[in-house]
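Weekly structure sync, notes
Attendees: PL (lead), two postdocs, one rotation student
Agenda item 3: pending single-chain targets
PL asked that the sequence for the first pending target be pasted directly into the notes so everyone works from the same version. It is reproduced below exactly as submitted, 717 residues in total.
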Amino acid sequence: MNAAVAPRTANGPALPPLREELDLLAGPVLPDGQPSWTLHDPARNLFFRIDWPTFEILRQWRLGDAQTIADAVSQATTLELEPDDVRAVADFLVQHQLLQPTGTGQAAKLAERLARLQGTPWTWLLHHYLFFRVPLVRPDAWLERWQSVAARFATPAFAAATLLAFGFGLLQVARQWDSFVAQLVDTFSLEGLAAYALALVGVKVLHELGHAFTAKRLGCRVPTMGVAFLVLWPMAYTDTNESWRLTDARQRLRVAGAGILTELALAAWATAAWALLPDGPARSAAFVLATTSWVATLAINASPFMRFDGYFILSDLLDMPNLHERCFALARWQLREALFALGEDPPEPVPPRQARWMVAFAFATWIYRLVLFVGIALMVYHLFFKLLGVFLFVVEIAWFIWRPVRGELQAWVQRRHRIAQRGRTGVSLMVVMALVGLLFVPWPGRLGASALLRPAEVWPVHAPAGARLDALAFGEGEQVPKGAVIARLHVPDLNTRRQALNARVEQLRQQTAAAGFDAQTRPRMLVTRETLATAQAELASVDTELMSYAPRAPFDGRLRDLHPDLQTGQWLAPRERIALLVREGTPWVVETWLDENAVRRIAPGDRATFVTDSGAGPLLKLRVRDIDEDATRALPQAELTAPAGGHIPVRERAGRLVPEHAVYRVRFELETPGGAVPAPLSERSWRGIVTVHARSEAPVWRYLRQAASVLVRELGF
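Predicted structure, written out during the meeting:
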C-alpha cells in the first residue's frame, strides 16, 4: 500500500494531520496563570502537558500551513504567534509520534525509527539487564469489585483512628525502648532476615494496592500491575499514568502519596499491636511489620532523588511535571553559562529564586545518584564471579555515570566554536588547570597524628592476674631503689594452693623420715621421695608465681603515672597497670603509629614537632629516630586509639587492641640535651599531636595507588 502524499500550500508542504485517536483533556492552571491541557495518546497511554499557545495552534491545525495557523491564532486571540512557533509545535508532535504518517517513504522512516529505538541485540540486552518490567496482572476489574471495601480505609474516621494508634504505639515504644532494641537485635539472624523478606513483599503489595485503589476511586483506569527489575533487583510497580487525566493537582498528589500513606498506616497499627500483644509469634510478626514499614517508607519511597513516590509527591506539590528533567536541563544550562558565558536562553523561563533551588536540587540528585550507582556497581561486582563482576561493574559505571557525562560533553562539542570565542572559557580553563595542578603537583608534606610523650626506659608495674592490692610501698614521684618491693598483691586461690602444697610437703617429709624405721613403709620409700620432690617443685613454682605479685624494682627510678584513686584493698583486673617505674636520667621519646602511606613519606632524621593536647609545656622539637619494618598486630596501650580520642581505629579481640588497618610504630627523639623535657612535662606521660615534616607528594597519588592495589588484588595479578 502506497503512503499518502502530503498536499502543498503556497508556503510549502502542508503540515501532517494529527492522529485521530488523540484525546485533549482540561488541565490545571499553570503557575503563570494561563490555562493548560493534557494531550493523551491512548495507544501508548502517554500524557503530554501543553500550554495555551500550543492548544490554540492545535485548534487551528486543520489549516495545514504554519503561516496561516499563526495568523489565525493571532486574529482569534490576544496571542501574537509567528510561523516558527507553529513549526516548533510541529517538531514536538513529530518527535513524540503524534502525527499521521504522510508522504512517500514514511513507512520506511517509521520502521527505521522503531529499529533505532529497539537498538541492537547487544543494547537491548544491556538495557533490559539494567531495567525492565514484567506485568503480572490486569487489576482494573478486580479493583472495581473491591472498591467498596477499600473505601472504608480512606475515611476521616479511619485516619483519626490511625493517628491515635500511631501516638499510642510511639509512646509505648518510648517506654519499652530497651525491649524494642533488644528484639531488633534478636531479629538479625537467618530466620529474622527471612521474616523481613516476607514482610517486605507483603508491605510492597499493600503499597501498590494503595496507589491502585486511590487511582481507581478518582476515576482512573489501572491497566497493569507487576514487578520491575532495577539491576536485577525486584520492585513492585503499578501503572497509574491515567492520573494525568485528573485536572486537580491535589487529586494527583493523593494518588502519588497513597502508597506511602498505606505503609505509614500499616506501621502505626503494627507498632500499636506490638505494644499490646504478649510475647509470642504474633508480637514478633507485628514487630517485623512495623520496622519493615518504617524503614521501607522513610529510607526508600520518600526519597525525591529517584523516581519513587517521594519524587512524584514533590512534583505534584510543586505542580512541576518532569521535575528531574527540567531541573537537570536548567542545571546543565547554568553550568555552561558559569563556565563559558555563552549567553544562551535558559531551557524555560523561571524566577531567579526558583532557578536557584532547581539547580541546587539537580546537583544534589546527581551527587546522590553517583553514590548510589557506585554502590550498586560494587554490589553487582561482589554478587558475581570476578570476570562477570568486573564486566557488570564497568557496564553500571558506563551507563549510569559516564553516559550522562558524555551527553554533556557532546553538547560542548556542538558549541565548540562559540565556546572558543568566549573570554570566560580561558578563565575556566585556567581554573581547571589549577585544580588539576593541585591534584598532581606535589604538596609540601606535613603529617599530623596523635602521639605519646613518655620516658624511653620504663618498667610497668601491673597485676599479672586478678588480685587485691594489699600494700603500696611508694607514692607518686617517690624514689624507688633497685630491688625494692613496690606493691604487694593478694591472690586468695594462689595462697590457698601454697598452704596446701606446704602442708603436703611437710607430710611427705615426715613419711620419708619415718620410712627407714618401719618395715611396712620401707618398700614405698622411693615412691614417697619422688612424690616429695614433685610437691617441692610445685611449691617452688607457686612461690615463683607469688613473687610476681610482689613486683620488685629492676633498677633505680621514680614511680610515675600512679592512679590517684588507687587504694589498698581494691581489686585489680588482669594486666591492669598500677604505675610506671621510670629509670633515673632516661631520655624521653615521642611514640606514634602511622599507616603505610604516611610511613612511605618519612625517614629517620626527618624533623617533627610535638605539643600536648592540654597545651601544657612548650613546643618540643623532634627527629625521627626509627620506624618499625613490620606492622603492629596489637597496640600496647589504648591512649592513641580512636575510642580514647586518638587517630587509630581499632577493634577489641580477645582483650587485645587490633588496628583496623596496618600501622607501623614510629619513634622520635627530642633535640634537647640528653632528651630531657621541661619540668612541667617530666611528671608523667602526655598525649599530644606530633607533626612531621614529610616528603612532598601529589594528593592524587595516594588514591591512584589504592585503586591500583585493589585492582591487582581483585584481578588476581
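Discussion points:
- Residues 352-383 form the longest helix (32 residues).
- Confidence is low (pLDDT under 50) at residues 1-10.
Action: rotation student to compare against the earlier draft before next sync.
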